[in-house]
Design brief:
By secondary structure, the chain is mostly beta strands. It has one helix and 13 strands.
Length: about 170
């Protein structure tokens, strides 16, 4: 008897659910093409841009194969920070950077160090220990003397590095 009731309810459900379908009308709104800003000179851009950051009056980007650049609000080149090379303030793979007030901390991946610039001028070089390897996947920020950065590992997710103890 219970089986007949269950079969009846299932058939009733199937009959009711297969009834008239409601048509839901959807509308799409097309948005016209938008141009944010056209640059007159693209020669400073490459296909190796790894990091972008903006302040009130500047847009900064790192070109992995070259150095860092600062543009004004009209996208005019205002400053080149560092150069390609292995000397002080020079980059072999500038991947990511952090801006704190007037100080820029930039990862120099192949030198396994962070280059420090104040108002665009080279100040110092912070070498990194081998166990805290910097890669193009590293993200970091600086808080006073401490550098906090991500770490690609099975056992560690983040590393605190005291830059004063180098």
């Amino acid at each position: 008897m219970n089986a007949k009731i269950i079969i009846f309810l299932v058939l009733l459900y199937c009959t009711v659910s297969c009834g008239q379908k409601r048509h839901i009308e959807t509308t799409s709104r097309l948005i016209p093409d938008t141009t944010f800003c056209e640059l007159s000179d693209f020669s400073i851009f490459s296909d190796n841009i790894r990091c972008l950051s903006a302040t009130e009056d500047r847009l900064y980007f790192s070109d992995y194969s070259e150095a860092m650049f600062a543009l004004d609000k009209q996208f005019n080149l205002k400053e080149k920070i560092g150069n390609r090379g292995s000397g002080p303030g020079e980059f072999i793979g500038c991947s990511h950077f952090h801006i704190e007030n007037d100080t820029i901390y930039a990862i120099n991946e192949m030198k396994q160090a962070i280059e420090v610039f104040v108002n665009g001028a080279y100040i110092s070089h912070i070498p990194y220990p081998a166990e805290a390897r910097l890669t193009s996947l590293t993200r970091f920020f600086v808080n006073e003397q401490f550098i906090f950065h991500s770490f690609v590992s099975d056992s560690l997710q983040a590393v605190l590095f005291d830059s004063c103890c180098v």
